[in-house]
Amino acid sequence: KQWYQRRVRGIPLILVGALGGCSGKFLQNTEESIRLGTAVMSKGEFLQISFVTKASLLVSSILSLIKIDVIPLSIPQGLVFSAVILVSVNLAMALAGLPDPFHPITNATWRVCSIAAKRSPKED
């Protein structure tokens, strides 16, 4: 029971951390729709997830796992670890022209979601 309570406690930490890190991307679409007077649903952050949102989710996941004692590091060590990962990924993307490293994960997630959405519940 204690294991389950620790994992459930980490979910809100991950969500709040990810929303805090990428809130500008969510507000940008809202600002554009207010300024233009129309809502463009094809440009939403949930439909086309940006690198910033994916990185925020990764960093908040790492720090949440540290906070609930799954990863045996201190919070400052976790921040340094996350910063080193993000800086090296950004440098590799900028200097070597590498694509988004989260792209394969995004493709797999969308495939699973599309397969789950196509299945209809069986009628009894």
List keywords for this structure.
124 residues; mainly alpha; 5 helices; 71% helix; globular
Q: Could you walk me through the main structural features you see in this protein, from its secondary elements to its overall organization?
A:
There is one protein chain. This protein is mainly α and 124 residues long. Helix content is 71%, strand content 0%. It is built from five helices and no strands. It is globular and about 50 Å long.
Helix content: over 70%
Oligomer: single chain
**Average predicted local confidence, pLDDT:** 77
> Helix and strand succession?
HHHHH
| E-strand count | 0
The SS-based structural class is mainly alpha
Radius of gyration: 18 Å
Distance between the termini: 35 Å
Main beta-sheet strand count, sense and barrel state: none
Instruction: Please give the count of helices.
Output: 5
How would the global form be characterised?
Answer: globular
Tell me the fraction of residues in β-strands, as a range: under 5%
Poorly predicted segments = none
